[in-house]
């Protein structure tokens, strides 16, 4: 086996591997003979099919199979010979596959950057300190209760932080525009989900009331034809609801996986969780400080293969986070 390697960039390597024709031909012949023993063709007894017929039927496929196996075997032999470690999957292109001649292929891949040790004695890392106090626990419990809040219909005018169920039709120059209409849409006033003025215009309305809002889209809006556009929204309020927070009790505690018999036990468990999260946050903060300092002292080229791998991992995490399956775009 002949191997040569050239450096095409700081991290990229081009490996040329030549494999003697005899190694390929011997393996192909071995597999052809094995195939001949089991091949069944009309007009021939089992195991008596002439080799020329076997080769004609399956020779090309077997040779392709052998070449693939040889690439897998010789590539890692070549890496050991050249004492290099790829930073990702190689791109392999056959350059000579003609039967009877030495087989040759070219593998292009990236290697890891060389790291030189530097003096980190001047690096200073500060460890943050924090303490979970009663007000922190109160705020966290309030946040947990809001996560489990329910909406109850009320007979009054809508106010900030209420949820309204509305129908609306948006028009520009008297013509409805795409994405500007909905029926039975729930909206929490003050959430700033809609364009400026939309939610404020609903405040004070009761169920069954209608109102037309003259508004303008922001100049930086993501739809070009609506940037800065003057529009009108006809709104009908179907229902007004206010949030009802669950009472502190075992039913609520269990929803968060906390076994507690009274409020104090619940507060202790919440505090313990917050302290654990605080320790993890401090650890991550220190790690970030260390990495920032290392980057100041050590500038490295990053293999594209590693960046692609990280992108794939982040993509998979996002798919899992948003509950998507394999078909998620």
At a glance:
By secondary structure, this protein is α+β, with helices and mostly antiparallel strands. It is 39% helix and 24% strand.
Task: Itemize the secondary structure elements and their pairings.
Layout: E1 2-7, E2 12-19, H1 21-38, H2 51-82, E3 91-96, E4 103-110, H3 134-147, E5 150-153, E6 163-172, E7 175-188, H4 198-202, E8 210-216, E9 230-244, H5 250-255, H6 263-297, H7 304-321
Antiparallel strand pairs: 1-2, 2-4, 3-4, 5-9, 6-7, 6-9, 8-9
Residues in β-strands, percent: 15-25%
Cα-to-Cα separation, first versus last residue: 45 Å
On the 0 to 100 scale, the average pLDDT is 91
Number of strands: 9
Structural class: alpha+beta
Query: Considering DSSP H and I runs of 4 or more, what fraction of the residues is helical?
Result: 25-40%
Q: How many separate helices?
A: 7
How is the main sheet built? 5 strands, antiparallel
Rg, nearest Å: 35 Å
Unreliable segments of 5+ consecutive residues: none
N-to-C order of helices and strands: EEHHEEHEEEHEEHHH
Shape: elongated
Describe it for me?
It is a single chain. 39% of the residues lie in helices and 24% in strands. The chain is built from seven helices and nine strands, in the order ββααββαβββαββααα. The strands form two sheets. Strands 5, 6, 7, 8 and 9 form a five-stranded antiparallel β-sheet that branches. Strands 1-2-4-3 form a four-stranded antiparallel β-sheet. A hairpin with a 2-residue loop joins strand 6 and strand 7. The chain has 329 residues and is of the alpha+beta class.
């Amino acid at each position: 086996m002949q191997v040569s390697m050239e450096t095409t960039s700081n991290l990229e390597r081009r490996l040329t591997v030549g494999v003697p024709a005899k190694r390929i031909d011997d393996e192909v012949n071995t597999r052809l003979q094995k195939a001949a023993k089991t091949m069944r063709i009309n007009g021939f007894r089992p195991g008596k099919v002439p080799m020329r017929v076997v080769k004609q039927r399956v020779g090309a496929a077997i040779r392709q199979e052998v070449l693939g196996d040889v690439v897998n075997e010789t590539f890692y032999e070549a890496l050991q010979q050249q004492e290099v470690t790829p930073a990702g999957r190689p791109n392999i292109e056959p350059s000579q596959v003609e039967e009877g001649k030495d087989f040759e292929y070219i593998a292009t891949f990236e290697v890891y950057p060389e790291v030189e040790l530097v003096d980190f004695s001047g690096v200073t890392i500060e460890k943050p300190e924090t303490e979970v106090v009663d007000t922190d626990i109160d705020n966290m419990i309030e946040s947990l209760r809001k996560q489990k809040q329910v909406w109850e219909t009320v007979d009054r005018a809508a106010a900030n932080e209420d949820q309204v169920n509305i129908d609306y039709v948006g028009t520009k120059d008297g013509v409805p525009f795409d994405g500007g209409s909905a029926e039975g849409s729930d909206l929490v006033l003050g959430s700033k989900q809609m364009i400026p003025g939309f939610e404020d215009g609903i405040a004070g309305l009761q169920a069954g009331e209608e109102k037309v809002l003259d508004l303008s889209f922001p100049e930086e809006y993501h739809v070009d034809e609506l940037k800065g556009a003057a529009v009108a929204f006809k709104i009908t309020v179907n229902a007004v609801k206010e949030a009802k927070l669950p009472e502190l009790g075992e039913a609520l505690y269990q929803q968060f996986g906390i076994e507690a018999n009274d409020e104090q036990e619940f507060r202790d468990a919440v505090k313990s969780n917050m302290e654990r999260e605080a320790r993890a946050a401090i650890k991550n903060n220190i790690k970030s400080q260390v990495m920032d300092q290392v980057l100041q002292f050590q500038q490295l080229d990053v293999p594209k293969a590693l960046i692609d791998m990280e992108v794939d991992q982040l993509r998979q995490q996002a798919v899992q986070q948003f509950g998507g399956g394999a078909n998620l775009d």
